Amino acid sequence: MENKMINYQGSDIVYTLTGKGKPVMLLHGFGEDSSIWQHLVNELQNDYLLITPNLPGSGDSSYLDKEAVTLEDYADILHEILKKENIISIILMGHSMGGYITMAMVEKYPGDLDAIGLIHSSSYADDEEKKNIRKKGIQFIQQYGAPAFIKTTIPALFMDIEKSKNDIQWLIEKTLHFKDAPVIQYYEAMMNRPDRSYLLSTFDKPVLFVLGQYDKVVPINAGIEQAQLPVLSFVHILQNSAHMGILEEKEKTYQIVKSFLDTTIQSEKYSNKNE
């Protein structure tokens, strides 16, 4: 494992390189940092080069101090990491907000991508109801602080609170490191993102969808609907998960991701052989 850093518009962005092989970037979601992927990194490092960035204001990455930050700004950061590492293309997987940024990458830097994975995530924009919920969340943060806000949201992300109590406590402990400004920045960027579902129809490379049967953030019906859009779609439903399958069903999530990566690599080798 190697800790690396780039500076993007005055913000120090910390990321980790682990393993060797085909580059795979794993992008964390809201209220998380790159450690959310630790199980996958441990299991995949013998076969793949895992790149795990911390978004600005998460983990050890500093806050991106600029007005009107968008998901495209975060996509620019990922692109800069690839340039720094002289990596031509990757398989990019994002959990929740990380998936929203993945779709921004599809729009802005499609040549960087050999395949993508939306892990409990969506290509759709927020509807008005969701935007109003986010606005109320921002008001809560401004009054009580980011750690208090994230703490209130975590339990509802799990199917079985009692069964997942250790993971919930682990995530809650991590909330203590979050400052108000970057968390508000994430919410505003998510709230203002456009509908990018049309890109799934035009993206001609493999797309993995991991859905949770009990997910309230990305309801199963919406997940299945968007999974019908790509030409090459791989869909998996975690029967005992809500929004946090990477913790709720760690081993099954690993098996799903490993199978997708292996299939994608084999397909690339076959295509190259026959060109």
Structure characterization notes:
The chain has 275 residues and is of the alpha/beta class. It has helices at 38-44, 71-84, 97-108, 128-144, 146-153, 165-175, 180-191, 197-202, 220-227, 245-248, 250-273, and strands at 2-8, 11-19, 22-27, 48-53, 90-95, 113-119, 207-212, 233-238. Helices cover 45% and strands 19% of the residues. The chain has an eight-stranded mixed β-sheet, sandwiched between helices. β3, α1 and β4 (48-53) form a beta-alpha-beta unit. α1 packs across α11 (250-273), α2 (71-84) crosses α3 (97-108) and α4 (128-144) crosses α5 (146-153).
Number of helices: 11
Q: So, CATH architecture?
A: 3-Layer(aba) Sandwich
CATH class wording: Alpha Beta
Q: Please state the average pLDDT score.
A: 95
Kindly, what is the distance between the CA atoms of the first and last residues, rounded to a whole number of angstroms? 35 Å
The fraction of residues assigned to DSSP E strands is 15-25%
Order of secondary-structure elements: EEEHEHEHEHHHHHEHEHH
Strand runs, count: 8
List the domain count as a whole number.
Answer: 1
The CATH topology is given as Rossmann fold
Main sheet specs: 8 strands, mixed
Helix amount:
40-55%
Judged by helices, strands and strand pairing, the structural class is: alpha/beta
Shape: globular
- Radius of gyration, Cα only, in angstroms? 17 Å
Strands ordered across the widest β-sheet: 1-2-4-3-5-6-7-8
CATH-defined superfamily: Alpha/Beta hydrolase fold, catalytic domain
Oligomer, anyone? single chain
Q: Provide the low-confidence segments as ranges.
A: none
